[in-house]
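## retry 2 of 3
previous attempt timed out at serialization; input unchanged, resubmitting
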Amino acid sequence: MPALFRSSFLTHAEITATLRAWADAHPAHARLESIGESPEGRELWVLRIGRDLDAVKPIAWVDGNMHGVELCGSSVALAIAEDVLALHTQPDDALREGHPARALPPHVRDTLRDVHLCVLPRMSPDGAEAVLADGRYVRSVPRQLEPRAPNARWAASDLDGDGRSLSVRKQDPSGEWVEHPDAPGVMVVRELEDAGPFYKVWPEGTIEHFDGVRVPTPTYLSDSPVDLNRNFPFTWQPEPAQPGAGPFPLSEPESRAVVSWMTAHPSVFLWLNLHTFGGVFIRPLGNAIDKKMNQEDLAVFRQLAAWGETFTGYPTVSGYEEFTYEPDKPLYGDLVDFAYHQRGALAYVCELWDVFAELGMERARPFADVYARLGRDEMKKLAELDARHGSRIFRPWRPLAHPQLGDVEVGGFDPIVGVFNPPFERVAQICDAQSAAYLRAMALAPRLALSTPRVEALGADVYRVVVDVRNDGYLGTYVLASAKELAFDVDVYLACTGAGGAEVDAEHARVRVGHLDGWGRGRHSETPWWPRSRGTVSSRRVSIVARGRGVVTLEASGARTGPCRVEVTLG
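## retry succeeded, writing output
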């Protein structure tokens, strides 16, 4: 199918059709499964890509669009899936021009083919569908909590029938907004020198439980009070400590489905959570400063940060140090915190689309402050940028008789394409850049290997079999140093079985190997002026005793790596 997701944002039906087409065309390398269903009956699709789909392999996970309005995440997730699928189904010299794997050497492409990629393109299909169908803002999921207090609140709707739910403005001497003096129709914050007219600006819609006098203050969670990215179990806190938390951890079927699937798949070692917007990668820790982080973990994240900057131009920041909205107050119930702390994954967020760079703005420190720094100069530049891309952001104001507020105007700011998401013309470029960075991250996977066994005769039909169990991958078999403490991150074991007349001594049927380090240490963890290696930390020699004549099978496996096996014939 044409890769429409590289130039537009797909509906749930179109995503479903794309995934099914891939799975049907390449059953040996792609498998589609539903891990759950949204309240409105839409499947939560996960596409697994790789070889030996029934085998346990290290898993790289990508999810997108957990926030309804952040549609570009689905496009990038699908683009990564398409690029990895091509690695399995096309010769290297037939990959499309611009495919990110073309720049990788053959041994790295081989490593990628030993990893399973699992992609959930859209975690909030109900939210995205509401955005696409109604043109309204949905933070995450378009549903209400019941029972709900009968307080006045704004409920978005399309009052003028233009297919969008934007804003209403009404002249008011105490209004906080004025039109930009050099960009007609663009609303900016009122300043002391402004002479008016002044406006109140509210969501396009109506007020539930309106008393006819007092207009409620709208919030970004006014008509969709649950934020999936505050509903995960690690450090979950209830309202009001954490807005959007939901009534309890994993109260929502989408977050519950993701956690259930992840718990059943301990070999997930890499986790990319795609959001918009801002042009930044956000890594752990989300709840403490970097000095409190495992420093071996931090070194690996520095390697990801280097690739991210090289291929996308985005910096990487600490979630706690540079992406909290209030000083010293972490975001609770965050997905990446769950993935890192509870599943031991190399987990991080990308906020796609660097609109700030497009406006010539410098990066703020802390980074989150940049979102509050759009002044009049930047809004004028945004209007000029919008004009070059088809005038999608700023819509004309039109008079309307509001059923509750009287004479108003409807229109204004439409941030879905151009602010919250990139213009359609830029999606393909963003997809390619993100895929190039992520494929390198996938190549960090641990890789178990066994040497060719050596057989020594000890007596009549008695043999010693010697084999080296190795980890040839970048990451250790535990993935991250901090993950060694997790209950499911168990050691590597070597299982030894005999057949056809061969028999392995009972005490050697299952040998504990322990964890094996990888060859990678993370960026700047080694010093070139002291070129020294660690000792024998990436392999272990195992000897077993077997009797008889037949075949002995040796299989090494770990919870995070999957198995590898070799056979040797005795006699």
